[in-house]
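Input (structure):
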């Protein structure tokens, strides 16, 4: 399995390790490639869109022509996991004109709704499809403050948005078609079950 990690900004080593770990648990091998320019996404079976600074990420994706390749990837039904800033870029509305969204998930996102980095926290999170709470790490996390009926994301039009997890009543993990988005950072824990949900048909039982 070729797994592409969008690497136009920031350190993506944690995501690379997480998908390798998840693949091994399913008896597969992940060939991880870091994507910084166009031409690589079409060869990938799965994509990961990590955190970082959403305005910079969206600008660099557009500049390098990677944005259209990601849209084509999703239109072909291939999976994407978008976390934190990746979720913001994947949304239909970032409530910030500086972010050129990819319109993969029919959600509205409030950037940094959980506060600044000093307000970051970890919490056990009940996630649909998991057998036990997931240790979710929130770092300057965005908040999903509106979920559409699926029609707002042209690439996934017709697929309902499924809320997978909530924190204090607000959605923090969603799925629409082949795209999973989370407000938190699943790669910052040894628990790979969010990657299981995004990329594999079965979820390994937690050993946490």
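Output (sequence):
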């Amino acid at each position: 399995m070729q797994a592409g990690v969008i690497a136009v900004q920031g350190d993506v080593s944690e995501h690379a390790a997480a998908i390798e770990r998840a693949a091994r648990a399913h008896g597969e091998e992940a060939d991880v490639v870091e994507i910084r320019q166009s031409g690589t996404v079409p060869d990938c079976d799965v994509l990961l869109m990590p955190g970082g600074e959403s305005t910079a990420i969206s600008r660099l994706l557009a500049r390098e022509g990677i944005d259209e390749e990601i849209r084509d990837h999703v239109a072909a039904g291939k999976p994407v996991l978008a976390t934190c800033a990746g979720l913001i870029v994947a949304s239909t509305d970032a409530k910030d004109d500086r972010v050129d969204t990819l319109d993969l998930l029919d959600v509205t996102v409030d950037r940094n709704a959980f506060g600044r980095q000093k307000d970051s926290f970890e919490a056990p999170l009940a996630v649909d499809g998991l057998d036990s709470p997931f240790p979710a790490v929130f770092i300057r996390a965005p908040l999903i403050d509106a979920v559409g009926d699926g029609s707002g994301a042209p690439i996934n039009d017709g697929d309902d948005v499924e809320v997978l997890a909530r924190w204090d009543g607000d959605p923090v993990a969603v799925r629409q078609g082949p795209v999973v988005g989370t407000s938190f950072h699943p790669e910052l824990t040894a628990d790979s079950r969010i990657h299981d949900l995004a990329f594999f048909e079965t979820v390994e039982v937690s050993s946490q």
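Notes: The chain has a mean pLDDT of 89. The domain at 2-207 is CATH 3.40.50.880 (Rossmann fold).
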